[in-house]
Amino acid sequence: MTDSGRAQGGGGTRVRRRGRRGGPPPRVLLWGLRGGVTLLLGVAVLLWAWVGLQQLRRLPYFEIANVAVRGNAQVGTAQIVASLGLRPGTSILEPDLNELRRRVLANPWIRDARLSRRLPLTLEVVVWERRPEVLLAAERPYLAGGDGVILAEAAGGVLPALPRLVLSGGRYAPGDRPLGETVPRALALWRALGASPATRGERLQEIRPERDGTFTLRTERGTLLRVRGEGAERQIVRLEAALRHAGTSLRAYEAVDLRFGDRIVLRAGAQKGG
Fold this sequence. Notes:
The protein is of the alpha/beta class. Helix content is 36%, strand content 23%. Among the domains are: 64-129, Roll (Ubiquitin-like (UB roll)); 181-268, Rossmann fold, CATH 3.40.50.11690. The chain has a 5-stranded mixed sheet, covered by helices on one side. It has a 4-stranded mixed sheet with strand order 6-5-4-7, with helices on one face.
């Protein structure tokens, strides 16, 4: 009976030990409780700070008092301010400056813009504008910037003295860019030829992009020049040398072909009077 009691007592002891190993120690429970409370307090503080910031941003003290616009000549200040779409009472801390910049850039006359907060109450808008650099002659004439973005339809009557780039047709709206990178390439070629001694005494009338990537230029006296966009500078230098060697000017030729990398082709025509 004693042995049996001992066995029972021993068994009872083993059961109690297994129970202690199966559950977490009190110290672990205490740490978990403290961590949970700390986490809840942290979330509460963050939520309180966020709510407080939202309330702070709406205080009348932070209402935008002035929008300073700089760099504009083509676009009116009032037009730029209106494009921001700011509601009355908007806080200086509230607007998303990237979104406001996107609104300003929706105007095709504005090439780039930078917005910043000038605390306490001023929103500053600095713009860089496009200016008309080329006349796109399509179904209607359009003023375009140097990057080819259409700014406006050219008013009737006397057109501005700009390089004239002829398109095959079509109608466009301000902000369209129908030719992509063709306009910058055409303008670079126009300016290079215009500055060359080869065109001295001549005036370029128009430039037309061709489907094969080349350009055809026409002078006021009727001479046609076919030029590649790439490597045109070298060919213009060759044209200058050829004219010097022949002792003639560009007006003596009906057509000049500069599309070939190793030679130029001159086609003589009737001498054009001055």
